[in-house]
């Protein structure tokens, strides 16, 4: 909370300090449209969450509609607990679909009612499931009791790992359940639709999510049976993994198993592997009451994962999905119990997201791998206090600043182009040291299309302090037009920021109808100023801006 107070105090001096800062030399950034770097693939258009039953609730449906609308391509959604037993009641780090039970004679009873409602919600919005085969139904769990957990923020994480976290007691019944689920999906949504999904097994088996005597060998067996069941049901389905929490021996051994070792379900060599997935997280902490982010930990794990995949010639060009790519690990741990998570409501989360996603493109380029998606593990939490500091995109139906970064990214398309200039931190430097020196990370991600150029510019620092920032001179070279229109979108303390608006109205926990409408408006992406019309001279223009610390701009040129 001290970080919030500090930021608010600094904001009082913001207007006065702008004048002083504007006398310092501008940070010069150059965008060269002639120097292409690769496709502007929508690696950011992937989202995930623990609680699948939020999908069909009021605020969940609203947020999914907004997420679907911000992307020009289908958004992929990953959720836990799609096979967990229960009545479909949502709770923190819990969910259920009750798709499998057994009668008194042990015969299977399949019920697709709840899972259909969840997947219908996605498909209606032209979203695609990253369909997770997990967790273990109670009737199939090797250790079924206790089954349902009642975790709350502040409790130990290990308390979550109950009967759902165990392997199947009968592999054949479990494989048949998977087969029937995939076949049902094909019958309900059509083969072409299900062919566009991705199927995966479990979550972080190398962490606490799988309880077994030999976790590695048990997971490999589970993967072999699950992949075989998926492919028997739909040979053209896409299956991959292992969605490990860390990038180490378990991850590497899984790749070896899928490529070279005997399959425990079929007896053949190897297992189907249509994509590779792993997780990467940062590590924020409190330093004298102020949040300090750990972007270097986040990006170094991504770099290490890409390096391991690239070391296998057989995996050249295989799609890679960073199944959870976040500043830290527990979305449901709010800032009351975890004060280091106070970054989540304001613009630090926005600038971190912009800076980290841009570097994911760079790391993939450097390692020569095919990065398909990076799942932002944040959604929404129903019936929770306003701005409680959960890692979410919206609170009580009101969009938080971070969602506007994804709106900005959704406006970028075409080819990525080179950005150079007065850059304090390149990707390698951020991986090695983070952003902790005196200078902030002012940089940009740029893309060009046939008739437009879009430049995402951020001013990021690991330490949660907001100030006037720096003047920036953004030069775009190689424009094949005489005139253009400039739209400048901004996320800062005064723009695209429902949290700042909420604090300004006194931080109400029961806002009235008019206040909610005001907050909803403040949560939308806003322009910094009216659109401008510029004359292009010698195929280039220069745009000047004052970019506060932890702010993000999107400059969109059309011609």
Give your account of this protein's structure.
The chain is an alpha/beta fold. It has two domains: 2-37 and 413-558, Immunoglobulin-like (Sandwich); 41-78 and 103-128 and 172-410, TIM Barrel. It is built from 14 helices and 24 strands. Strands 1, 16, 17, 18, 19, 20, 21, 22, 23 and 24 form a ten-stranded mixed β-sheet that branches. Strands 2-3-6-7-8-9-12-13 form an eight-stranded parallel β-sheet. Strands 4-5 form a two-stranded antiparallel sheet. Helix 7 (215-233) links the parallel strand 7 (198-201) and strand 8 (239-244). Helix 5 (171-189) runs parallel beside helix 7 (215-233), helix 9 packs parallel to helix 10 (347-367) and helix 10 (347-367) crosses helix 11 (401-410). The radius of gyration is 24 Å and the shape is globular. Residues 1-22 have low confidence and may be disordered.
Give the helix/strand layout.
Blueprint: H1 2-12, H2 14-22, E1 27-39, E2 46-49, H3 58-70, E3 76-79, E4 100-102, E5 108-110, H4 113-124, E6 128-133, H5 171-189, H6 191-195, E7 198-201, H7 215-233, E8 239-244, H8 249-260, E9 275-281, E10 285-287, E11 290-292, H9 295-310, E12 319-326, H10 347-367, E13 370-374, E14 394-395, E15 398-399, H11 401-410, E16 415-421, H12 427-433, E17 441-448, E18 452-460, E19 470-477, E20 483-491, H13 498-504, H14 513-522, E21 526-527, E22 532-535, E23 540-547, E24 552-558
Parallel strand pairs: 1-19, 2-3, 3-6, 6-7, 7-8, 8-9, 9-12, 12-13
Antiparallel strand pairs: 1-16, 4-5, 10-11, 14-15, 16-17, 17-18, 18-24, 19-23, 20-21, 20-22, 20-24
Helix pairs in contact: 5-7, 9-10, 9-12, 10-11, 13-14
């Amino acid at each position: 909370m001290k970080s919030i107070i500090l930021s608010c105090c600094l904001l009082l001096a913001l207007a006065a300090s702008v004048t002083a800062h504007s006398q310092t030399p501008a940070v010069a950034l150059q965008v060269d449209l002639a120097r292409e770097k690769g496709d502007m693939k929508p690696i950011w258009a992937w989202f995930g969450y623990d609680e699948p039953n939020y999908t069909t609730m009021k605020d969940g449906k609203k947020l999914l509609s907004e997420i679907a609308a911000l992307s020009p391509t289908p958004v992929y959604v990953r959720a836990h607990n799609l096979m967990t037993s229960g009545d479909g009641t949502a709770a923190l780090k819990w969910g259920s679909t009750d798709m499998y039970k057994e009668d008194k004679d042990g015969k299977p009873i399949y019920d697709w009612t709840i899972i259909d409602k969840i997947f219908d919600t996605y498909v209606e919005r032209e979203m695609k499931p990253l369909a997770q085969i997990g967790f273990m139904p109670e009737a199939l769990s090797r250790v079924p009791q206790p089954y349902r957990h009642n975790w709350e923020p502040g409790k130990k994480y290990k308390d979550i790992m109950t009967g759902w976290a165990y392997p199947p007691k009968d592999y054949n019944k479990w494989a048949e359940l998977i087969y029937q689920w995939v076949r049902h999906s094909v019958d309900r949504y059509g083969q072409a639709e299900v062919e566009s999904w991705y199927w995966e097994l479990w979550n972080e088996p190398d962490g606490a999510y799988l309880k077994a005597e030999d976790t590695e060998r048990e997971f490999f067996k589970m993967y072999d049976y699950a992949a075989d069941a998926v492919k028997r049901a739909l040979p053209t389905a896409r299956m991959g993994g292992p969605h490990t929490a860390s990038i180490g021996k378990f991850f590497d051994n899984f790749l070896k198993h899928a490529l070279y070792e005997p399959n425990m379900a079929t007896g053949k060599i190897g297992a189907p592997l249509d994509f590779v997935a792993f997780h990467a997280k940062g590590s924020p902490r409190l330093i004298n009451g102020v949040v300090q982010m750990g972007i270097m930990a986040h990006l170094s794990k991504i770099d290490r994962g890409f390096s391991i995949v690239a070391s296998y010639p057989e995996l050249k060009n295989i799609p890679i999905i960073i199944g959870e790519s976040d500043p830290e690990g527990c979305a449901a741990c709010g800032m009351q119990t975890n004060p280091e998570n106070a970054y989540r409501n304001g613009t630090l989360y926005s600038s971190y997201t912009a800076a980290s996603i841009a570097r994911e493109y760079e790391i993939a380029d450097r390692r020569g791998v095919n990065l398909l998606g990076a799942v932002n593990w944040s959604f929404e939490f129903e019936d929770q206090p306003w701005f409680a500091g959960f890692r979410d995109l919206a609170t009580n139906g009101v969009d938080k600043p971070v969602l506007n970064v994804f709106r900005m990214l959704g406006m970028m398309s075409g080819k990525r182009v080179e950005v150079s200039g007065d850059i304090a931190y390149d990707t390698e430097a951020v991986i090695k040291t983070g952003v902790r020196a005196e200078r902030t990370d002012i940089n940009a991600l740029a893309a060009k299309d046939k008739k437009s150029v879009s430049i995402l510019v951020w001013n990021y620092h690991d330490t949660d302090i907001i100030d006037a920032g720096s003047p920036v001179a953004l030069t775009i070279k190689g424009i094949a037009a005489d005139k253009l229109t400039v739209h400048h979108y901004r996320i800062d303390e005064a723009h695209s920021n429902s949290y700042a608006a909420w604090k300004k109205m006194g931080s109400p926990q029961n806002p009235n109808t008019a206040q909610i409408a005001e907050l909803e408006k403040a949560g939308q992406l806003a322009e910094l100023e009216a659109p401008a019309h510029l004359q292009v001279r010698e195929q280039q223009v220069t745009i000047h801006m004052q970019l506060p610390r932890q702010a993000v701009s999107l400059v969109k040129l059309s011609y």
